[in-house]
Amino acid sequence: MTLPTSAPLSPASTTGDPGRASRRRVLGGLGVAAACGLACSLPLLAGAGVLASVGALLTGVPALTVVVLLVAAGAALLVRRTRGARSAAGSCGCGGACG
TM spans, by residue (predicted)? Predict the structure, then answer.
């Protein structure tokens, strides 16, 4: 049984067009950069949309605006109080070793 033989490949067919490979790398890099930019910007765009929607809602209902501001102020005071109490208790983090 004999194996079929083929003509040896010419150097031009083994290397290909060097400009084409370079263009592929550049386009691939641009594609990756665009995908990363889109993935990173989606949470920011969603957050901005939510804030814009809430702002539009609050401008239409003044009583709701006052309630939201009071809740936000209360939450800020609660966080500040718990952080102050935690630091006054001498908490040194998860390990507890202050050094």
Answer: 26-51, 57-79
